[in-house]
Design brief:
single chain; about 575 residues; Glutamine Phosphoribosylpyrophosphate, subunit 1, domain 1; Rossmann fold; 6-stranded antiparallel sheet; globular
C-alpha cells in the first residue's frame, strides 16, 4: 500500500517545493585575466615578505564601503558588509538518517545539532509511523526549529534530517529540506547534500516531457527522475535516477519501510555509516554526529554505492562503475569539525599537519602564534609546536553575533569584524605575531583582521594560510564566489600581501599538501586550487549551490541574475598566466 503523507505545516498540499530566495547579484569590478583551468597550482612555497611598513589603515577598505547609507533600504548596509566579512566558503548542508530506533526523530534532532556547522539557516526532520511520512521543517537553528511538542509530532523508528545553508537571500520555509513527494507507487522523503553540474540539461529534458518545477533545487530534479522511472522497485528507481546525475550528491531517502543512502561515484561529499548498541543503523555527513548519539562508526558509504536498510537488514548495491574517488579536500581544511573522521582521516591530525608544514616551509622570527578562530586553531597549534613558539589566544571569537543588531549613530570602522573577533592587547602589544587562518577567499576579512591586530599594538603581523591559494569556483556543493572575485585568481602573493597589509604572507604549498596525504593524495579533489575539474560542466553556466528563486518570481532560470557561476573553460597551455608560480 502506498505510504500516506502528512505534514505539521499548515499547507494545503502534502509537500511544497516553492522557492523563496532573494536573487543575489554580483557585479564584480573588471579584473585581470584569471588563471586558466589547466594551469597547475604553485609548486613552490607561496611566500611574500617585506620589512617595510606597508600597512595603511584606509587605503584598501574605507569606512564608507561598509556603511554606505541606503535611504530606500536602511537595513541593506549591514547585509552587504556582513556578507563581505563572512567570506569563507560555505558547505551547503548536512544530512542524517536513522533506522530501527523508537526515538529516531529525537536522535535525528541531536545529530543535526552536531552537524549545525554545516548549515544554520534551516532544519527539518521527516519521520515514518504507520506508513505515514510526517515532516517538521523550519527556518533557523536546530534548537529554534524543534521543541518537545514538535518532536512529539514525529513518532516512529525511521527518520531522516537535514540542516541547510542558503547561498542567496533569506532562507524561507518552503526551501527547507527534507522534501517529501508522492508519486504513483508511494511517497518518498529526501535530504540532499551536493550540487549537480548537469542540472540545466536535466531540468530542460524533464520540462520538455511535461514536468512542472517550483524551485531551482537539485533535489526536485532527483524527485522527478525517480517519479518518471520505468522501474517498479523503489531502489531501482533511485539507481536509474542517479545514473543520470553528474556532479556531487550524498543523499538519504526514506519511504514507508526503507532508509536508503546514496553517494555519487566520485565521493565528493562525505557520508558515513554507524550503528547504535540496539542495532539501529545511522547515516550522517560526519562522524561527530555519530559520537553525540552514541553510534559506533562502521565505515563510509562508498563512492557509487547505494545502501538499503529495511526489515531484511542492510543491503549494498553498486550504483555504477566508478572512477577514482575525488573527495573534497576542503572538508579537512575548513568544513568538518576537528573531532570528525572524514574520508578515513582525522580532521584534527590533517589540520595540525598543515600548520607544521607552514612552520617548516615558511618560517619567520616571531614572539607569539595566534589563530583566527575557530577554523584556524588546530593549524596554529601545529605551527607553534613545530616553530617552538608559544601559542596564545590573541583573538577571542564571539559566538553570539546574529545577523541583526543596533548600529551606532557614528559609524565604526570594521564593525562587523570587531563584533565577531576581539583582540587581546596583552598578547599582541609590541609582539611579532604569526596569525594562522584556514584560507583567503576575497581578502577583505584578512585585511580587517591585520588592521585589528596592528591597532591592538602588534609590532609585526605575519599571515600564514593553511591551504593553497584558491583560484577556482567549486561546482560540487560548496558556495564559493565566481573566479573573478577570488583574490588569488587575480593577484600574486605579493599583491595580496600588500592588499591585506601584513608584513609577510605564505600559503600552504600544494606539493607539500599532496606529499602529506601520501598515497591518498590522488583520491582528493583540488579543483579550487588547480582549476582542474574531475567532472567538467557541460553547460556554459552552472547553477550556484542552493536555491535562488524568490517566492512570486517568474521567468526563465537563465534570466535570474546571481544564480549562476560561469563554467570552467579549458584554455590552451600558452594562455596560462605566467605568474601562477611564485619564486621564493
Amino acid at each position: 500500500m502506498a505510504a500516506k503523507v502528512s505534514s505539521s505545516l499548515s499547507k494545503s498540499t502534502p509537500f511544497s517545493l516553492t522557492p523563496s530566495q532573494t536573487p543575489l547579484s554580483f557585479s564584480p569590478k573588471p579584473h585581470p585575466k584569471p588563471f586558466s583551468s589547466s594551469s597547475s597550482p604553485p609548486k613552490t612555497a607561496s611566500l611574500s615578505y617585506t620589512h617595510k611598513p606597508l600597512f595603511t589603515a584606509s587605503a584598501k577598505t574605507p569606512i564608507s564601503d561598509f556603511f554606505a547609507e541606503d535611504k530606500k533600504n536602511p537595513d541593506s548596509s549591514f547585509d552587504e558588509y556582513f556578507y563581505d566579512d563572512d567570506e569563507k566558503p560555505r558547505e551547503e548542508c548536512g544530512v542524517v538518517g536513522i533506522y530501527g530506533d523508537s526515538e529516531a526523530s529525537r536522535l535525528c534532532y541531536l545529530a543535526l545539532h552536531a552537524l549545525q556547522h554545516r548549515g544554520q539557516e534551516g532544519a527539518g526532520i521527516v519521520a515514518v509511523k504507520n506508513d505515514v511520512l510526517q515532516s517538521v521543517t523550519g527556518v533557523g537553528l536546530v534548537s529554534e526549529v524543534f521543541s518537545h511538542s514538535k518532536l512529539d509530532q514525529l513518532p516512529g523508528d525511521l527518520a531522516i534530517g537535514h540542516v541547510r545553508y542558503s547561498t542567496a537571500g533569506s532562507s524561507m520555509l518552503k526551501n527547507v529540506q527534507p522534501f517529501v513527494a508522492g508519486y504513483r507507487f508511494g511517497s518518498v522523503g529526501v535530504a540532499h547534500n551536493g550540487n549537480l553540474v548537469n542540472y540545466s540539461s536535466l531540468r530542460a529534458k524533464l520540462e520538455d516531457n511535461g514536468s512542472i518545477f517550483n524551485t531551482s533545487s537539485d533535489t526536485e530534479v532527483v524527485l522527478h527522475l525517480i517519479a518518471i522511472s520505468k522501474h517498479r522497485p523503489f531502489i531501482l528507481r533511485i539507481v536509474d535516477a542517479c545514473e543520470q546525475l553528474e556532479g556531487a550528491y550524498s543523499m538519504v531517502f526514506v519511504t514507508n519501510d526503507k532508509l536508503v543512502a546514496v553517494r555519487d561515484p566520485h565521493g565528493f561529499r562525505p557520508l558515513v555509516m554507524g550503528r547504535r548498541s540496539n542495532g539501529a543503523v545511522v547515516f550522517a555527513s560526519e562522524t561527530c554526529a555519530l559520537d553525540l548519539i552514541e553510534a559506533t562508526y562502521e565505515r563510509e558509504v562508498y563512492p557509487g554505492e547505494v545502501v538499503v536498510v529495511d526489515k531484511d537488514g542492510v543491503q549494498s548495491l553498486c550504483l555504477m562503475s566508478h572512477p577514482e574517488p575525488k573527495q573534497c579536500i576542503f572538508e579537512h581544511i575548513y568544513f568538518a569539525l576537528p573531532n570528525s573522521v572524514v574520508f578515513g582521516r582525522s580532521v584534527y591530525e590533517s589540520r595540525r599537519a598543515f600548520g607544521e608544514i607552514l612552520a617548516t616551509e615558511a618560517p619567520v622570527d616571531c614572539d607569539v602564534v595566534i589563530a583566527v578562530p575557530d577554523s584556524g586553531v588546530v593549524a596554529a597549534l601545529g605551527y607553534a609546536a613545530k616553530a617552538g613558539v608559544a601559542f596564545q589566544q590573541g583573538l577571542i571569537r564571539s559566538h553570539y553575533v546574529g545577523r541583526t543588531f543596533i548600529e551606532p549613530s557614528q559609524k565604526i570602522r570594521d564593525f562587523g569584524v570587531k563584533l565577531k573577533l576581539s583582540p587581546v592587547r596583552a598578547v599582541l602589544e609590541g609582539k611579532r605575531v604569526v596569525v594562522v587562518d584556514d584560507s583567503i577567499v576575497r581578502g577583505t576579512t584578512s585585511s580587517k583582521i591585520v588592521r585589528l591586530l596592528k591597532e591592538a599594538g602588534a609590532k609585526e603581523v605575519h599571515m600564514r594560510i593553511a591551504s593553497p591559494p584558491i583560484i577556482g569556483s567549486c561546482y560540487y556543493g560548496v558556495d564559493t564566489p565566481s573566479s573573478e572575485e577570488l583574490i588569488s585568481n587575480r593577484m600574486s602573493v605579493e599583491e595580496i600581501r600588500e592588499f591585506i597589509g601584513s608584513d609577510s604572507l605564505a600559503f600552504l604549498p600544494f606539493d607539500s599538501l599532496t606529499n602529506m596525504l601520501q598515497k591518498e593524495a590522488p583520491k582528493f579533489c583540488y579543483a579550487c586550487f588547480s582549476g582542474k575539474y574531475p567532472v567538467e560542466p557541460r553547460e556554459i553556466k552552472v547553477k550556484r549551490v542552493g536555491d535562488f528563486v524568490d517566492d512570486g518570481l517568474n521567468g526563465s532560470l537563465g534570466s535570474i541574475d546571481g544564480g549562476w557561476v560561469q563554467a570552467n573553460v579549458n584554455p590552451k597551455d600558452d594562455e596560462i598566466k605566467q605568474d601562477s608560480v611564485v619564486k621564493v
